[in-house]
Amino acid sequence: MARPPITKPKNLSGPKRARKPAADALPSREQLLEALAKQPDIKGKRDLAKMFGIRGDMRRPFKAMLAELEGEGVITRTRKALRRTAALPHVTVLDIPLDADPDDLHAYPAQWNEEEGEKPRVTVLGGRDARVAPAPGDRILARIDAGEAEIPVYTAKAMKILDKPRRGQIGIVRMDDDGARLLPVDRKLKEMRIPLGDLLTAADGDLVEVEVKLSGRLMIPRAKVTAVIGNPMSEGAISLIAIHNLEIPYRFPQSVIREADAATEANLKGREDWRDVPLITIDPADAKDHDDAVYAEPDQDPANPGGHIVTVAIADVAAYVHPGSELDREAYLRGNSVYFPDRVVPMLPERISNELCSLKQGVPRAALAVRMVIGADGRKRNHSFHRILMRSAAKLSYQQVQAAIDGQVDEQTGPLLDPILRPLYAAYDVMVHARNHRGPLELDLPERKIVLDDKGMVLDIRVPERLEAHRLIEEMMIAANVAAAETLEQKRSALLYRVHDEPSSEKLQALRDFLGSLQIAIKKSDSVRATDFNGILAQSRKAGNVEQVSEMVLRSQAQAEYNAENYGHFGLNLDRYAHFTSPIRRYADLIVHRALITALNLGEDGLTEREMLQLPSIAQHISATERRAMRAERETADRLLAQFLATKIGAKFEGRISGVTRSGLFVRLFETGADGFVPASSLGQDYYRYVEERQSMIGERGGEKFTLGDRVTVRLLEAAPVAGALRFELLSEGTRVNPSSVRRGNKRPFKPFGAKGRKKR
Questions:
Q1: Average pLDDT over the chain, rounded to whole?
Q2: 40-49, 234-243, 299-308 — most confident range
Q3: Is 524 helix (H, G, I), strand (E, B) or coil?
Q4: Domains 91-162 and 169-231 agree in fold
Q5: Predicted confidence band at 757 (pLDDT cuts at 50, 70, 90)?
């Protein structure tokens, strides 16, 4: 039946009313949709009926038409109104669910007004020509196509993978006479009151998540507890703060646990039998998992006199964690394991990491091994990869191995000394020659280890001794990683590189300026090599300021990352490098294992075509999770040390200036390695200028100078364990320079301090 057009409605208050339609005439679908789109005052079908003059017998078919449109999803009924379903903008932000099928990727708008109805489902298009390859769990900026149909059928092409915003604010509840207050974990934020009715079940000392609301005419911020996380102090788990603040997944879903528990031990099918090869594991004494094993022997080939055969075997995680499985999705989400003094947040459940993929002594285990032929000059001549079943001959610690080589064998190392340990060191000795010739960056900064008691409190801070046994394993792992990258390049396979860019020209210039103030020269070209930095460090050792120079050289370096494109590894001075040796704790290594399995036809559980397409986004994601882990570990160490020093307020400590900013000085204590801050306003009664090229604060009138690397004495004034912050008072005199040499600019305002400033000496 033909539908006559609707005449222009009269101007009436409320929804505009249409002239009464002809008898038995209904408005068209298009007219209804146009009215809903253009008439914001329409609240429901009654308003629509009035607008189009629907009466009597026309009401039933009119309601049926609306029900049909609503059933098709063209219009939406909400609590407030009946309206046309909202359309997505041409470019919008989408969230891909973590449980999305990687082969049929879909997403939903990151922001959506629930009154518009259900979120529309958007199909994410991929393919070999896609510039961005997102994965489940990603947030993307996408270009949207709604199609030509009346009901939008959305497809999207990803333009960029975005960082997801952090969750609500995290803090510690403190009860006082006035009720409750929140101590934010973020040291940049101020305390807030918590109304007692908004505490949920939180008690004093609990770590909570809150939302912040502004109240009153003065818009005072108040916190409302939305989740009680726990009490990190009582549980001896201060790492909980970093885990929740940085949103690190630390509980495995039951589906992941079930899949791990259902896994069975690998057998000889599709593997070479290497159970008689005396591979051994060498790890820290307290290690719970052992994912790498080594063995070396003299090469009997007459064409390689003085050469060695070095074998590195790595746990075959790919045999248990298959692409698209629950285990795989969770491992990707985590990206890596995170190590705290009081706990480890593993990438994989214990059933996999500590059992099936741990190369336990005397137990058959699946592994992926690389056999490398090393010449007498330490250079690798050739290598081959093998999928094997092995059985570790011994589980040793670094200290055991080093003691045995130094002549102090025990019951376990005695029988292994000549047949296994000495050949390992003989191979390492020649590999060191090649390493020295290559010239990687020799920036050997001490790493402190925080030892906790049974209550999770700091018991001791130690600098573990750096042994030759550590360097042996490190050198053999580097060689295995290089071999993996070379093989995949030769096979023209997709590859996740571990890359480290050379320093930027801006950072190099800042380093030149600083070194110039110490009368140390570095070549002016922007093309520098790791050996150039080694020469600088050698000069600084002779001059006695290696700590200052090491700190600045470290700051000049770019951050290593994962990338599907190769631009080399500057620090190691290698043209190609990949991570292959730790698939239990790094997702990157698992991807490299799968790539090798596919490239070398070692099984059906290798890298899929979908993963190959997604390597750029995988690299971006796991680089971000690595940075998150580093930040979490650093913040937790800061909080533990602040807690440890909180009982020593007023004590004096010796340290070194580890950072200079316009705001003040950072000082690192020798005894604990704790970092604290000396505000510029407390340095003394002078105008202090920040001179960037010298990394110094210099008094304009007196010429007193404080420079990066200076030894100083400080007094602890304040410790904030929740924030991991320490505030010091500087007790040492600075060195003196001619005030006229201070460059104009970078001026700190003068403030009189009285008793708060250092007394005039």
A1: 86
A2: 299-308
A3: coil
A4: yes
A5: very low
Q: Are 172 and 210 in contact (CB under 8 A)?
A: no
In CATH terms, the fold of domain 91-162 is OB fold (Dihydrolipoamide Acetyltransferase, E2P) (2.40.50)
Distance, in Å, from the CA atom of 656 to the CA atom of 678, rounded to the nearest integer, reads 12
Sheet with 308-315: strands ordered across: 272-274, 380-391, 364-374, 308-315, 292-298, 280-283, 394-397
| Residue range 169-231, CATH number | 2.40.50.140
CA distance 589 to 481: 9
pLDDT at res. 78: 55
Q: Of the segments 180-194, 361-375, 534-548, which one has the largest average pLDDT value? A: 361-375
For 245, other C-beta atoms within 10 Å of its C-beta total 22
Residue 514 CB-half CA count within 13 A: 25
Closest among 395, 390, 349, 362 to 266, alpha carbons compared: 390
d(CA 77, CA 114): 11
User: Closest by alpha carbon to 247, among 173, 325, 181, 169?
Assistant: 169
C-alpha triplet 494, 497, 500: angle, nearest 5°: 155
Could you tell me which residue, 745 or 26, shows the higher pLDDT?
Answer: 26
Q: What is the DSSP string of 13-54?
A: SSSPBPPPPPTT----HHHHHHHHHH-TT--SHHHHHHHHT-
Spatial distance between the Cα atoms of 666 and 643, rounded to a whole number of angstroms: 18
Residue 185 near residue 206, CB atoms below 8 Å: no
> In the chain, what is the straight-line distance between the N-terminal and C-terminal CA atoms, in Å?
103
pLDDT at res. 186: 78
What superfamily in CATH does domain 649-756 come from?
A: Nucleic acid-binding proteins (2.40.50.140)
705 has which bridge partners? 698, 735
List alpha helices for 373-524, DSSP H.
Answer: 398-405, 422-438, 468-490, 505-517
Closest C-alpha among 314, 432, 303, 422 to residue 371: 314
Gap between the Cα atoms of 451 and 472, Å rounded: 25
Output DSSP code: residue 646: G
Residue 390, token pair as written in the block: 């092995």
Task: Determine contact, residues 332/462, Cβ cutoff 8 Å.
Answer: no
pLDDT at 486 over 90: yes
The Cα–Cα gap between 496 and 380 comes to: 22
Quick check: helix, strand or coil at residue 631? helix
Residue 617 near residue 161 (C-beta atoms within 8 A): yes
Tell me what pLDDT residue 119 has.
80
DSSP 8-state code for residue 420: I
| Domain parsing of the chain, residue ranges | 1-85, 91-162, 169-231, 254-438+447-498+564-632, 502-557, 649-756
Sign of torsion over alpha carbons 580, 583, 588, 594: positive
- In the block, which residue shows the tokens 């010091």? 728
Each residue's pLDDT tens digit, 698-718:
988 888 999 888 899 999 999
Neighbours of 284 (CB within 10 A): 12
- Amino acid symbol at 263: A
Task: Calculate mean pLDDT across residues 37-43.
Answer: 64
Candidates 345, 359, 386; CA nearest to 582 is: 359
pLDDT confidence of residue 10: 41
| C-alpha distances out from residue 470 to 124, 402, 432, 682, Å | 47, 9, 13, 44
| Phi and psi based region of residue 138 (left: phi greater than 0; alpha: psi -120 to 50; beta: remaining) | beta
Q: Which two tokens stand for residue 271?
A: 């593997």
Three-state secondary structure call for residue 381: strand
Residues 569, 498: contact at Cβ < 8 Å? yes
Write the CA distances from 377 to 220, 311, 312, 374, 474, integer angstroms.
71, 18, 20, 8, 18
CB-CB contact of 428 with 467 (8 Å): no
Give me the phi and psi of 628, to 5 degrees please.
Answer: -60, -40
